[in-house]
Structures are given as C-alpha cells and as structure tokens.
C-alpha cells in the first residue's frame, strides 16, 4: 500500500514536496536531493512525520 510522504528541505526546513512511497519496501525515512526554491540550490530533502 502506498502512503503519502512530505519532504522538507534540510537547510531551511520548509516543506516543499509531497510524494508517495511504498511503506513495505521503504520503512525508513526517505532522503532525496531536490531543488529548494527558497534556498536557490539543490539540497537534501527528508521525509517529515
């Protein structure tokens, strides 16, 4: 079953992206490098609770 995950920037802590993930295959927190429009650069985005 897919579950919604919200990603927050590691630098400014703003919640920029929302995506889905398979909780069975990826039980931990998701980490992806994505573009943050407030920082103006690619930063590490982590899944929030």
Overview of this structure, please?
This protein is elongated. With 49 residues, it is mainly β. It has a single domain, classed as Rubrerythrin, domain 2 (Single Sheet), CATH 2.20.28. The chain has a four-stranded antiparallel β-sheet, with no helix packed on it. The mean pLDDT is 94.
Helix-strand string: EEEE
Low-confidence stretches: none
Q: What would the CATH topology be?
A: Rubrerythrin, domain 2
Mean pLDDT: 94
Spatial gap, N to C terminus: 18 Å
Which structural category fits the helices and strands? mainly beta
Can you tell me the CATH class?
Mainly Beta
What's this model, at a glance?
With 49 residues, this protein is mostly beta strands.
Layout of secondary structure:
Layout (H helix, E strand, L loop, with lengths): L1 E8 L5 E8 L8 E6 L4 E7 L2
Provide tags for this entry.
49 residues; mainly beta; 4-stranded antiparallel β-sheet; Rubrerythrin, domain 2; 0% helix; single chain
């Amino acid at each position: 079953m897919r579950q919604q995950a919200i990603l927050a920037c590691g630098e400014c802590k703003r919640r920029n992206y929302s995506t889905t993930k398979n909780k069975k295959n990826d039980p931990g927190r998701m980490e992806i490098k994505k573009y943050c429009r407030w920082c103006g650069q690619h930063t590490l985005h982590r899944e929030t609770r």
